[in-house]
Specification:
By secondary structure, the protein is mostly helical. The chain is built from 6 helices and no strands. It is rod-shaped. The N and C termini lie far apart (88 Å).
């Protein structure tokens, strides 16, 4: 009986401690779940902010790349190119090499812009450049290297691109479509 008198309060205390610990564990689990959810929300906010900050930087760079590619295409347009490069006393060989060197320099100067424009647009820009080079080379092949460059220039303009098959216009159109699709 003495043992029962001693065990009864101990059992009562153990039951009370068990109930308190169960409630304490339940509250801690709720707090831990709340903190995990709060942490998840904070991580998502940080990711959205990071993305927003990244877009604040990358969107202007992308626009600039499209602008530079449009400028590149205008600069390698045979008529514009001839106006910038040609002088009256040039020979075919000099004009030919000057035109190709100018295109190469312009291309190399703008090559890094491919990182910011679509693969399709970059392909159109490269094709346009290659077609201009092909036009210049095929026109140059019709003359002697010492001929006057005026006839060579006239050949480029006369037999250049027509409206239906102009790779520069096609590339410009592709750039514009990309901008409308991705930034409007």
């Amino acid at each position: 009986m003495d043992a029962l008198l001693i065990l009864l309060p101990v059992i009562a205390i153990l039951i009370v401690v068990y109930i308190m610990m169960k409630d304490f564990t339940k509250q801690n689990t709720k707090q831990l779940d709340y903190l995990r959810n709060e942490q998840h929300v904070q991580i998502m906010k940080m990711e959205l902010e990071k993305k927003s900050n990244s877009e604040k930087i990358s969107i202007p760079l992308k626009f600039q790349a499209y602008e530079r590619m449009a400028l590149f295409l205008e600069r390698i347009n045979p008529t514009n190119l001839l106006t910038r490069v040609m002088n009256p006393k040039m020979r075919v060989s000099t004009l030919h090499s000057s035109l190709l060197a100018t295109i190469r320099e312009e291309y190399e100067h703008n090559m890094s812009q491919q990182l910011y424009i679509s693969d399709n647009s970059w392909g159109l820009v490269k094709t346009a450049k290659e077609e201009v080079v092909r036009l210049i080379n095929s026109s140059a092949a019709k003359f002697n290297s010492e001929d006057n460059a005026n006839v060579f220039a006239q050949e480029i303009i006369t037999n250049g691109f027509n409206n239906n098959n102009n790779p520069i216009e096609k590339a410009l159109k592709g750039l514009k479509e990309d901008i409308r699709e991705n930034f409007s």
